[in-house]
Amino acid sequence: MKKNMARVNRDFFTNSASVAAKDILGKYIVVGDKRGIVIETEAYVGPQDKASHAFGGKVTERNKAEYLTGGYVYIYLVYGMYWQLNISTGKEGYPECFLIRAADCSDDIKKTNGPGKLCKYLGLDKSFYGEDVVKSRRIWFEDGEDIPFDVVSAPRIGIDYAGPYWAKRKLRFLIKDYKKHLAKI
DNA sequence: GTACAGATTGAG
DNA sequence: TCAATCTGTACT
Q1: Nucleotide closest in space to A64 (CA vs C1')
Q2: Is the dihedral of CA A101, A41, A12, A58 positive or negative?
């Protein structure tokens, strides 16, 4: 019954972003001595996704990790002060990734209910850029408990500039039961 | 070398 | 609901 915390492997991350983003929910993210259950993610699904930094197949110093094969950390700074933790997905050369927006670290949900706060709590920064979560000893994912839960999908946050089509696509995923916690903040 | 955007947060 | 905040990126 006790699943021995199987580490999430490469196969998982080579799925498409929308699949991986949804399936990572309920699993554990482990960074150093901290761990949390992933409860909210967003998928960025390739060069045609206007909300993606890799829109149009553009490659920059910042987003190149997005093109790696699934399982690599793509972390970057927004607003000059907040880190966003993403994990590349899909096959090498194709820019897909999912953003981890929130996790439950069984401490205080308010500390990890946003992308910036989560990274701060877990101590993530640029030194993790390009880290392979399949092999890294600093950051990885583990299977969660076998507790059933409903997944809710919703439009992504803060991407109005991507136009109505992409702004409306339901590529944001959350664990239903946690929604009330998030809404409380 | 310089302008500018930004996948947020916290306060009111 | 709204405005502040600052670094990296992109472009000249």
Answers
A1: C9
A2: negative
